[in-house]
Specification:
This protein is an alpha+beta fold. The protein has one domain. It is built from two helices and six strands, in the order αβαβββββ. It has a six-stranded mixed β-sheet, with no helix packed on it. Strand 2 (48-53) and strand 3 (60-63) form a beta hairpin.
């Protein structure tokens, strides 16, 4: 009887402990940073990146930080992040991600849309 209880408890730990955190998401950060058409306070104070969210095929602009992430030109990075927000007082701030894990870091030129102004 004790063995069945122990096995049931272990099974529950394995079943519920191995699930991906519902608050995390996967994003891909392009190997280059966007150049805004016009410098603003937002683009000077807050970092901005070209990213893809989840399994999306399209690149888009992301105005916000990725806490714990160090951008390196020429490397496309797949990240596991947790969405968050800036503390009170950061007016006009975008969203904030907290880096949980770097899933991959590949030296490459990301194939981003020409409609995004990028540095070559």
């Amino acid at each position: 009887m004790k063995i069945k209880i122990i096995l049931a408890a272990l099974l529950a730990v394995v079943a519920f402990g191995c699930k991906k955190d519902a608050r995390t998401e996967e994003i891909v950060v392009a190997s280059m940073k966007p150049v805004p058409a016009e410098e603003t306070v937002v683009t000077e104070v807050f970092p901005n990146y070209i990213i893809k969210k989840g399994g999306d095929d399209k690149w888009g602009w992301y105005y916000g930080g990725i806490q714990g992430f160090e951008f390196e030109e020429g490397y496309e990075c797949r990240l596991l992040v947790e969405p968050s927000s800036y503390p009170e007082g950061y007016q006009d701030a975008g969203s904030l991600y907290i880096l949980k894990k770097v899933l991959s870091k590949e030296k490459k030129d990301s194939d981003v849309s020409e409609s995004l102004c990028i540095v070559k």
